Amino acid sequence: MSTLYWSCLVGGFAVTLILLVVGEVLEAALDALDGALEALDLGDAFDPLSAVAGVTLFGGAGVLLDTYAGLDTAPEAVIAGLVGLVGAVALHVVYVKPMRQSENSTGFSVREYAGKTGELTTGVPEGGFGEVVVRMGASTTFQTAASFSGHAIPTGTRVVVVEVGPQGVLRVAPLDTDDLAGSPEQAAVPPRLQTRA
Questions:
Q1: For 106-130, what is the mean pLDDT?
Q2: Quick count: other Cβ atoms within 10 Å of Cβ 33?
Q3: Digit-coded pLDDT (tens) for 159-173
Q4: CATH value of 110-193 in 1.10.357.140, 2.40.50.140, 3.40.50.720, 2.60.120.200
């Protein structure tokens, strides 16, 4: 059993060193392995990083138990297996899973634009389309805009996104009616949107 423990320990360290030294080169291979694991439909329950850590911990615990504990082979293997399993699960829960979630946390749906404010970088002609810049979290996005009322809105006007129309077009209305003072569009803007930013 000692040979198995040492093999797992040395093999785990070797894989870790290889990943540290030539990780960029092996990234494509690991992506392919990850894709193959997804095909097995294991979900988020398994990842290669946690598996390597678990095997390494199994080997290390086995070597220590074999050297110092003086236990029989079966209890020694069970304890080493539990140490490896708990270590792999802990690494997955504490490190891998939060990292995967943080990679996905910057995304947002186009429906989340409703109620956001922005500024027209390209004016919206009557019955046509323009462009609005809207801040979403830490991102600045440029989206196609159309007038909610159907009237023209000039470039530089602060607007509020009233709704998201077909094909993700943002239907906007002026936020500050001073930008449209004296224009015919002012009368068409609903009162609830005529507020200061």
A1: 86
A2: 13
A3: 999 999 888 899 999
A4: 2.40.50.140
